[in-house]
Amino acid sequence: MNPEVHTEKTIHSETLTAVSDTTTGTKRKGVERFNGLLTWMVRLLTGGVFLYSGFVKAVDPWGSLYKFNEYLAAMGINVWPNLVLAGVFILFTAEFLIGVFLLSGSFRRTTPLACLAFMCVMLPLTLWVAVSDPVSDCGCFGDALIISNWATFWKNVVLSVCGVWLLKNNRRCRCLVTPALQWIACVATSLYIIIIGLIGFEYQPLIDFRPYQVGTVLFDISDDGFSSEPSYRFIYEKDGVKHEFGEDDELPDEADGWIYVSRREIKASTDSDALGSTEKNLRVWDEKGEEDLTDDLIEESEGKDLYLLMPALSNVSIASSYKINSLYTWANKNDIRVSAIVAGSSAEIDSWRDLSMAEYPIYTADDTAIKEVARGNPAVIYVENDTIVWKSTLKTLQTDDFLAPDITTDPRSFKRADNVTLYNITMIWIAIIMVLIVTSLLPYLKRTYLPVIFKSSHHKDR
Predict the structure, then answer these.
(1) Which of 49, 225, 244, 435 is the most buried (most CB within 10 A)?
(2) Which helix H or strand E contains 459, and what residues bound it?
(3) Judging by beta carbons within 10 Å of its beta carbon (0-12, 13-18, 19+), is residue 275 exposed, middle or buried?
(4) Mean pLDDT for each consecutive 10-residue tract of the chain (462 residues)?
(5) pTM, 2 dp
(6) What span, in angstroms and rounded, lies between the C-alpha atoms of 100 and 93?
């Protein structure tokens, strides 16, 4: 065989092999780039959902607490109240941390595991909720975004798939915060979200997602306020047996031994019920829960009003009566009407009036409607001409004794600048995270751009 021909064939074979290797390498790099881009997209989607879910729960921990109690009641489980509250804080802190870690690429191995562990609990739970419908909505996004129970389940299916993908591919993408600094991000993020939660629990939510926001009308029974006229069932008890009566039924006489217990609102079924509602549902009744007095309060709404809201009168400590009575006396001196809107039986109201020596009028309302207006038990709202000016829990009002000689006479002075508080706290947290990201990227920028700058400068010198 001609040596020259053999040499040409060898060179040609080596060339084809090199081309093939180059093509394979190019394809492999293309797949790696695609996987990296897809992983970042999955990170952003999953992390964004977790961050949003944790944040809105932290803003309104009372709402999460109410939802927890709904779940426990549906399951027939009794849990120590403080343990439930601790569970609320653990839940939104864990969700927010997972969201931040996914978005920043921190703890690349542990975070997908935490995400999947979370989904292993939430996926079957939301399937049960979707099938049996024990609660009106899952509460996964609080009052900020109410979606149907089936939509919640399918959302969790998507997040579970994303968690599986991240478990395999998350470590292939670089992190924005270097591992040496990730513990600082963890501490800063935990402190930030817990502080948000504590403010929402002790005062009022820093962002109000409910229909009764500051600046809105309290009693709104217009067509825009109530989409439909509500109907009620009245619950009475006699000899330890409870009976329900409709609005068209003749209500029993308490002289015959009947005791009014509570009232249950019956809502007409509509297509929008599954998605929740932002309409206003506060209606007030007399102490026995028999006469609707909402129209009367609207007619008397001109001027200044303080409303004490007690969604669970039986759980209100009698120790709070001193501050309430002090507030009542101060309000009378400043031409401010004081009324209480409570959820409780007539017997509980009579007991409260006797023990607290209450001189203010007491009305009743559904506990759910009261909770929509303001958080806390008791809560206080100040209203001018039927427009809400501020809200607060009773214990966090700026003074304990409203009869002190140096106390303010302006009820507006008790208003808090919640938007400023939220802005300041959030900016501090964002600044910390940004410093960590920039510090983490400095070595990469140094390796990537300094040699280029140095070579360019060197060529210019020559």
Answers:
(1) 49
(2) helix 418-461
(3) middle
(4) 56 54 64 80 93 94 89 84 92 96 91 93 91 81 86 93 90 84 94 95 90 87 50 69 68 75 55 47 84 84 91 89 91 92 89 91 90 91 92 85 83 87 94 93 71 54 52
(5) 0.78
(6) 11
